[in-house]
Amino acid sequence: MGKRVTTRRRVPEGFRDAVGLLEFWRDGVLGVRKRDGSLVEIPQDTLAAAKVVPG
To answer: Is the pTM of this model over 0.85?
Structure first.
């Protein structure tokens, strides 16, 4: 938690990326706060890749 991450998840159209601060990972859902302040909730079963990035 609190680390800057980049994520790639599967969506019906292909893949979607989100970069931001990992706020939570609970009940199978990751919460990533993007730079614009929006919160992306990502079901962990849709994750294709994720890693911590320099912040």
So the answer is: yes
